[in-house]
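Worked example 2:
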Amino acid sequence: MEWRSADGVEWLQARLSGARAAFSTRSAGDVKESPERLAAALGLNPDRIATARQVHGADLLRDAGEPTGVDADGHVLTKPAGAALVKVADCLPVALAGRGGAAILHCGWRPLAAGIVAKGVEAVGATEAAIGPGIGPCCYEVGDEVLAAFAPLGEGIAAGRMLDLAEAARRLLREAGVERVESAGLCTRCDERFFSHRRDGDPRRQAGAVWLEATEA
């Protein structure tokens, strides 16, 4: 994962097999309002970026190719036309790639507990994953319900009431068969380059985006 910038927009980019993933900062503006600034920096057509209405569930949208009002917290791409995007501000964006395409998942604790990782991995036969910036174990204090949801993952998921959301995602990826996992290791609440709902009560969102690379015929 490496830092990239263009036209005043800064983002983290991950190289996956046959795909690319980007995790934006607040420099791209509020992607909930418009992804156009980020799309221009990434060289993507903003009208061909799939988004959905995120409801903290585990449903995936397949090859939408454009914004929709459908409820979904993940996107699956099997064709190298367009891109897909999730909106985050403390939740984790998780990108996947495998023989069946690529996916991007909105991984707050509820989607993780509901099985979105396993569904995404199965949908694309994922062998690689990139975990973008999200709230870290330094800042993510949770209640009993959340701790109980992740207790089956074993020790080291939480220290007291401080949950390590990225480690939970990593273990769920491993359980689903994904061995190559890269993580940004950045806390959105600590790092002011990112929007953070917990820090500021901010309604604005950054993005996790994925797209497939075109292959020569």
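The first helix runs from residue 36 to 42. The longest strand covers residues 9-16.
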